[in-house]
Write a structure and sequence with these properties.
The protein is of the alpha+beta class. Among the domains are: 108-221, Cupredoxins -  blue copper proteins (Immunoglobulin-like), CATH 2.60.40; 228-315, Immunoglobulin-like. The protein is built from six helices and 14 strands. The strands form five sheets. Strands 3-2-1-5-8 form a five-stranded mixed beta sheet. It has a three-stranded mixed beta sheet with strand order 4-10-9. β11 and β12 form a beta hairpin. The two termini are 42 Å apart. Belongs to the cytochrome c oxidase subunit 2 family. One of its GO terms (biological process) is ATP synthesis coupled electron transport. It is found in: Membrane.
Length: 319
């Protein structure tokens, strides 16, 4: 049980990027320092109970003896410990700051917006922004600059295997630079309590080789083809969902997650359930019981046939 946190897609002890390695090294250094202090305190505690002859001291000697313990244990030891943490910790944090030196190529920028309780991901580009939700794709083997903010309350962006967390504040954009050593899939989590469904605010992060990343972006810039087989579902969507949700070329709703590529995502509800056949229809029918308090209203007024039709069409949205 003690080793359960040493691996997995959210373990800081299994780093997959340079920033995460710095954080992990700092963690091990702090643990080692804590271990030494703990052993020293236990030894001193046991020594205090050791039988010994009573020592007579004058009041002046007692004051000097007490002063040594106060200065050593109350000032010198904490001062040295804090200084050591600053010496090792500050450079670790600075290496995650988005600093581009003269002559360097600016890194890829990805914007992340926190909502209660889902993630909006934006990829700015000259051909227009690509927008997704709860599924972040980044190029591997190069630094990526994340610009993070919040649409409502304080959230925090944290991909444990890639680096430290950074707060997402309404009305403010914070920046952090992270890098994945190689292609892979990583778990991310909101790391600041943001409401009753905070624990169900997961983010699926995927690092791809640069060529595959560009193909992924281009696919989402292309208009979705007309699908006559789901014509009625499209009309249902326009009538019941378009005011809140965007589907490229069909609607521009911004209150809820963008659904233009929902069929290609790994999960629904920011990690509440896996994407599989029939999952979207089940989510539409039972989302308030699966994730109570989310801002999408119940669909009690819609027939099961309509929800199944919508779900089948949305599952087909895979650029």
């Amino acid at each position: 049980m003690m080793l359960a946190g040493c691996s997995g897609d959210r373990s800081i002890l299994d780093p997959a990027g340079p920033a995460a390695r710095d954080v992990a090294w700092l963690w091990w250094a702090m643990l080692s320092g804590f271990g030494l202090v703990f052993v020293a305190v236990v030894v001193a505690w046991l020594a205090a109970f050791r039988p010994r002859a009573h020592v007579e001291r004058s009041p002046a000697e007692e004051r000097r003896f007490s002063l040594r313990w106060i200065l050593g244990g109350g000032i010198v030891l904490p001062g040295v410990s804090i200084l050591a943490l600053l010496v090792f910790g500050v450079p670790t944090g600075q290496r995650m700051l988005p600093v581009t030196l003269p002559g360097e190529t600016p890194p890829q920028v990805i914007e992340v917006v926190g909502h209660q309780w889902w993630w909006e991901i934006r990829y700015p580009g000259e051909q227009g922004d690509v927008v997704t939700a709860n599924h972040l794709v980044m190029p591997a083997g190069e630094p990526v600059e994340f610009h993070v903010t919040s649409a409502d309350v304080i959230h925090a962006f944290w991909v444990p295997r890639l680096g430290g967390k950074i707060d997402m504040l309404p009305g403010r954009t914070n920046r952090i630079r992270l890098e994945a050593d190689e292609p892979g899939v990583f778990g991310a989590q909101c790391a600041e309590f943001c409401g009753v469904q905070h624990t169900h605010m997961h983010l699926h992060v995927e690092a791809l080789p640069r060529e595959e990343y560009e193909v992924w972006l281009d696919a989402r810039r292309s208009p979705l083809p007309e699908d006559e087989a789901h014509a009625q579902a499209r009309q249902d969507f326009i009538q019941h969902c378009a005011g809140c949700h965007r589907v490229a070329g069909l609607s521009d709703g911004e209150r809820g997650p963008d659904l233009s590529d929902i069929g290609s995502r790994a999960t629904l509800g920011a990690g509440v359930m896996a994407m599989e056949e029939g999952a979207i229809a089940r989510w539409l029918a039972t989302h308030q019981s699966l994730k109570p308090g989310n801002r999408m209203p119940s669909h009690d007024d819609l027939e099961d046939e309509t929800l199944e039709r919508l779900g089948a069409w949305l599952e087909n949205l895979t650029p």
